[in-house]
Design goal:
This protein is of the alpha/beta class and about 450 residues long. The chain has helices at about 30-40, 50-60, 70-85, 115-130, 150-165, 185-190, 205-210, 220-235, 255-265, 295-315, 375-380, 390-395, 400, 405-415, 420-435; strands spanning about 1-5, 5-10, 15-20, 25-30, 65, 90-95, 100-105, 135-140, 170-175, 195-200, 215, 240-245, 270-280, 315-320, 340, 345-350, 360-365, 370-375. Strands 14-13-12-10-9-8-6-15-16-17-18 form an 11-stranded mixed beta sheet.
């Protein structure tokens, strides 16, 4: 037996070991003394019942494996098997590429309008042709602001639901919206076509949010979003509603005030949650991104963990917060061969960010509903990349990302797309430990209360 090469070992304040395995996602706490004993006794056949029970439990979690297992080959096999079995289709659809907001950090150019009836027809044919081979169809609505093309969403959703019924597919649908048009009537219409996961962005409290996320004519948006969330809270339907909070160095200190408001609105309703992400510079069209005080890569994780801690302290649910790494947990949708972004004109992309970069435009949906893709471009985006980068190949986080956490980073900026550093994962593990154990906490970033 041997310890897995994909173990991450973090230390608590009292020196005990937090073990995490990036294949299984298992996490365990073990005293430093027992950890040393296991390491020195793995192949000694000691007749110690307590030790053998401990080794048995560590094997269940994948921390200890048989000597003959080639872990790198196993991870590569799992990556290829899951990616190319072809029973899942993920479509991120842009019903329009126009928007009623002009956010400071937006990277989109708003050159195209609403999807035509002809393109809708092609997408319906695409799904119908693929359906006999599918087990699951996932649809995401993106933009632009997708709710500006409400008719397109409803038309396509009705068609997808009919296909689901005909072929017995698993079907899920979600929408990323700025939330300005998400009143009671709109919310009920989305739910009526099984769009049950909704994400709305609010960037801090009123003043900071309104400075960053304003209407095209400059109008404020915070109060409308707050009202729409309150209205959604009054519904009895089943759904998952996530408030995304993008942060930088300037708005972060106002986030606790926003969390207080959300606590008051949500009132422990577990349909609602929050999650936090740093603002990134993806090339804003109006130069406003250069006026923001972006946090550094080194500060992003400590800030995010602190905000998650403050949300949890208020009884809020944190969606997409830090979780121990596991198989594919950091893998980008763009790296998956059965995932496509469909533009409002029928163009196919892999990524929802770099629409104006030719590397990202990999094809189109033709008149018969076929995916016409450039295989050379596709190959750059998809699949296991662990053999292409010697640093990734040695990394203990490789099973969680396949070296493809962000294919765009390699293609656009020629940088290694590490979702998290091992040191940041260790910090996250200590955060999880402190969240579940009342043994004190260390605040690594000053976020005012």
């Amino acid at each position: 037996m041997k310890f897995s090469r994909f173990n991450i070992v973090a230390r608590t304040e009292n020196g005990n070991c937090l073990l995490s395995n990036s294949v299984t996602g298992a996490v365990c706490l073990i005293s430093n003394e027992k950890y040393k004993t296991v390491k020195s006794s793995l192949n000694c056949n000691e007749d110690n019942e307590e030790l053998q029970l401990l080794i048995r439990d560590l094997r269940k979690g994948g921390f200890i494996i048989d000597d003959e297992i080639d872990e790198a080959s196993r991870v590569k096999y799992l990556a290829n098997y899951d990616a190319y079995k072809g029973d899942h289709l993920n479509l991120i659809i842009l019903p329009t590429e126009q928007c009623n907001f002009r956010c400071a950090y937006c990277y989109e150019s708003f050159e195209k309008g609403e999807m035509s009836e002809e393109i809708r027809k092609r997408i319906k044919q695409l799904v119908e042709k693929k359906a006999p081979l599918l087990k699951r169809l996932s649809v995401g609505w993106f933009g632009g602001e997708p709710l500006m093309a409400y008719d397109t969403i409803m038309d396509l959703s009705h068609a997808f639901l009919e296909t689901k019924k005909t072929f017995g597919l698993q079907y899920d649908s979600h929408i990323t919206t700025n939330g300005y048009l998400l009143d009671r009537k709109m919310m009920l219409q989305l739910l009526s076509v099984d769009i049950r996961r909704i994400q709305v962005t609010i960037d801090g409290f009123r003043e900071e949010h309104d400075r960053r996320r304003k209407l095209t004519h400059g109008g404020e948006t915070f109060d409308v979003l707050a009202t729409n969330i309150k209205t959604a809270k009054e519904l009895d339907e089943k759904f998952q509603f996530t408030v995304r909070v993008n942060f930088d160095n300037d708005n972060v200190n106002g986030v606790p005030q926003l969390l207080d408001l959300l606590k008051e609105i949500f009132k422990e309703d577990r349909r609602f949650g929050v999650f936090f992400r740093p603002i990134g510079n993806f090339g804003g069209i109006n130069g406003e991104i250069n006026k923001l005080n972006l946090a550094s890569r080194e500060d992003n994780i400590p800030i995010q963990l602190t905000l998650e801690e403050q949300a949890l302290a208020r009884g809020l649910k944190v969606n997409e917060g830090f979780k121990a790494p596991s198989l594919q947990s950091y893998l980008c949708y763009a790296a998956q061969p059965n995932s496509f972004v469909v533009g409002s004109d029928g163009s196919l992309y892999k990524c929802t960010v770099y629409f104006n970069n030719d590397v990202n435009k990999i094809g189109y949906v033709d008149k018969e509903g076929n995916l016409k893709t450039n295989l050379g471009k596709m190959a750059q985006w998809v699949g296991y990349k662990g053999d292409e980068d010697p640093v990734c190949k040695r990394c203990s986080l490789l099973p969680s990302c396949y070296a493809a956490a962000c294919p765009a980073a390699r293609l656009m900026s020629k940088t290694r797309p590490c979702p998290m550093k091992v040191s940041e994962v260790k910090e996250g593990l200590r955060f999880l430990y402190n969240s579940y154990h009342d043994n004190g906490k260390e605040v690594k970033y000053d976020v005012s209360e």
